[in-house]
Amino acid sequence: TPQAATITLHADTPGPTYDKRIFTQFAEHLGNGIYGGLWVGNDRSIPNTRGFRNDVVGALRDLGTPVIRWPGGCFADEYHWREGIGPKAKRPVKINTHWGGVTEPNTVGTHEFFDVTEQIGAEVYISGNVGSGSPQEMAEWVEYITSPAGSLADERAKNGHKAPWKLPYFGIGNELWGCGGNMKPEYAADVTRRYATFIKAPAGTKIQKIASGANVEDYNWTEVMMREAGDQLDALSLHYYTVPGGWAPKASAIEFGEEGWAETLALTWRMEELVTKHSAIMDKYDPKKRVYLAVDEWGTWYGQDPGTHPGFLRQQNSLRDALVAAINLNIFAKHADRVKMTAIAQMVNVLQAMILTDGKKMVLTPTYHVFKMYKPFMDGTVLPLDIKSPWYNKDQWTMPAVSASAVRDKAGVTHVALANADPNRSITVTTTLTGLNASRVSGQVLTGPAVNSLNTFDAPNAVVPTAFNGAALNGGTLTVTLPAKSVVMLELN
Ligand code: AHR
After folding, report:
1. What mean pLDDT do residues 70-83 have?
2. Which residue's alpha carbon is nearest to atom 9 within ligand 1?
3. Which residue's CA lies nearest to atom 3 of ligand 1?
4. 175 labelled catalytic
5. Is the pLDDT of residue 193 over 90?
6. What residues does ligand 1 touch, defined as CB less than 6 Å away?
7. Ligand 1 pocket test: which of 29, 34, 74, 177 has the largest number of ligand atoms within 8 Å of its C-beta?
8. Given a cut of 80, is residue 151 above it in pLDDT?
9. Ligand 1, atom 8: nearest CA belongs to which residue?
10. Is residue 368 scored above 80 in pLDDT?
11. Which of 112, 175, 228, 272 is catalytic?
């Protein structure tokens, strides 16, 4: 039976801004997320600028990467910033106790990180050390980065950077309920208040303080944080990973059939419920939505690629991950009044990465291509939509087959994103456009021959966007034939 869905696009009642920070990236000192993936130092065989590889930096620049969160993750609460400044040869070599027990040379520290974010064109989101650091250490780091004067500013200048840097976002620890200190929510809220007190921006500047938020459906965490510390915060985070098959043993990133596809996408849809419920709690304490929700860790978490270090969280990325990305990005549109920042985990070589590297080689993942397709969403105005979609079911996994979102960009162009989770059937989507006079439609589609189609170093262009000609405009109606297992981005003028 032919599948059909209907959408009403309310261009006449524009919603909130789709904040470009929803495309924030996360780069942790974990596996080859930094070393090898971003930083190659003096390795002349890989073209680099002051140690950062040009191919990866260029690809991230092309994405318009708005913000990068660093240095963790769990690593953040054991990171001591002083160990990462000054002459590299004198920096202590530590053990990365969270991620594989390997050595951490501290070669990439504050100066290097600011350098690479400038090369990429991104803003900086630093996560401070609450779990094993003091408020003084945190305050001094902030002063070292931002202060125009004083001995910490002098030290910064001596280390090569006279001008203060901009520090728009600062995380007050990470996962304080777990690797950040195993705290109970009441205690974490008090600790957050205390540390937040000492994060001070120089006159005329502002540092947004982002508190460590809930794990998945820990609604009590959000409740306590908002009640006890909400007045001190600019944002509260939320972490939710898509983990098909559970934590142990983890499922394969590429060896799966339709059931693994359906389970992964159904679990991704949980984001809708999580964001709705956490937002409702925030609404109770912050009805004016001053404090935003920062979903600063999301994405798929599979077993590590065969032959790779289990502590490095290196995983391949397939068409399934492209759908995961699109479904999440569409969910965030619906909640853009509260969700102003999100960060997929992680940027390079770790979990649901944009980019994979191996020595000199680099490949852009299907997830990268989805981010590129959604680039016009950055700071666009969300256009609300109602969808009636057929359901896609496989075994116990069930979800709407079609997921969608739309924005109008600053130039007045409308962008409509559509994803079809059904791997077997195309779907005809009939969209009624209210308050929109468009006469031309064009677009791109991302799909592949199999649910686990992927890009490899040898075949890097197996899953890449191609021109889409399955959309037609007729008066106020847009008709789109969405191929099975695809992501489509349309532009309406
Ligand atoms: O992204 C990997 C890890 O997942 C992060 O370090 C931590 O915050 C989360 O548990």
Report:
1. 98
2. 73
3. 73
4. yes
5. yes
6. 28, 72-74, 174-175, 297, 345-346, 351
7. 74
8. yes
9. 73
10. yes
11. 175
SS3 of 329, please?
helix
User: What is the residue with the minimal CA distance to atom 5 of ligand 1?
Assistant: 73
Residue of 24, 68, 174 to mutate, ligand 1, most atoms within 8 A of C-beta: 174
DSSP string spanning 398-433?
A: EEESEEEEEEE-TTS-EEEEEEE--SS--EEEEEEE
Compute the distance between CA of residue 51 and CA of residue 69 in angstroms, rounded to an integer. 19
User: Which of 34, 179, 302, 350 for a ligand 1 pocket mutation test, highest count of atoms within 8 Å of Cβ?
Assistant: 179
The pair of structure tokens assigned to 245 is 């098959």
118 CA to centre of ligand 1 in angstroms = 25
Complete DSSP assignment for 46-102: S-EETTEEHHHHHHHHHTT--EEEES-SGGGGG--GGGGSS-GGGSPPEEETTTTTE
3-state helix, strand, coil in the chain (%, to 5): 30, 30, 40
Handedness of CA 57, 61, 63, 68 (dihedral sign): positive
pLDDT at 1: 66
**Average per-residue pLDDT in the chain?**
98
* pTM greater than the 0.95 cutoff: yes
Q: Give distance in angstroms: CA of 73 to centre of ligand 1.
A: 5
* Token pair of 391 as six digits: 């359901």
Length of the chain: 493
Alpha carbon nearest to ligand 1 atom 7, residue: 73
Confidence of residue 20 (pLDDT cuts 50, 70, 90): very high
Question: d(Cα 136, Cα 493) in Å, to the nearest integer?
Answer: 54
pLDDT exceeds 90 at position 2:
no
Structure ipTM: 0.99
Q: How far apart are CA 410 and CA 405, in angstroms?
A: 17
pLDDT of res. 397 = 98
The tens digit of pLDDT for each residue in 425-472 reads: 999 999 999 999 999 999 999 999 999 999 999 999 999 999 999 999
Q: How many CB atoms lie within 10 A of CB 147?
A: 18
Q: Output the CA 178–ligand 1 centroid distance in Å.
A: 10
Asked if residue 68 lies in contact with residue 25, where contact means CB atoms within 8 angstroms, the answer is yes
Q: Which atom of ligand 1 is nearest to the CA of 76?
A: 6
In whole angstroms, what is the distance from residue 212 CA to residue 219 CA? 13
Q: What is the pLDDT of residues 317-353, one digit of tens each?
A: 999 999 999 999 999 999 999 999 999 999 999 999 9
Cβ(237)–Cβ(215) below 8 Å: no
Show the domains of the chain with their CATH numbers. Answer: 3-10+383-492 (2.60.40.1180), 19-378 (3.20.20.80)
* % of the chain surpassing 90 pLDDT: 99
Spatial separation of the C-alpha atoms in residues 298 and 271, rounded to whole Å: 9
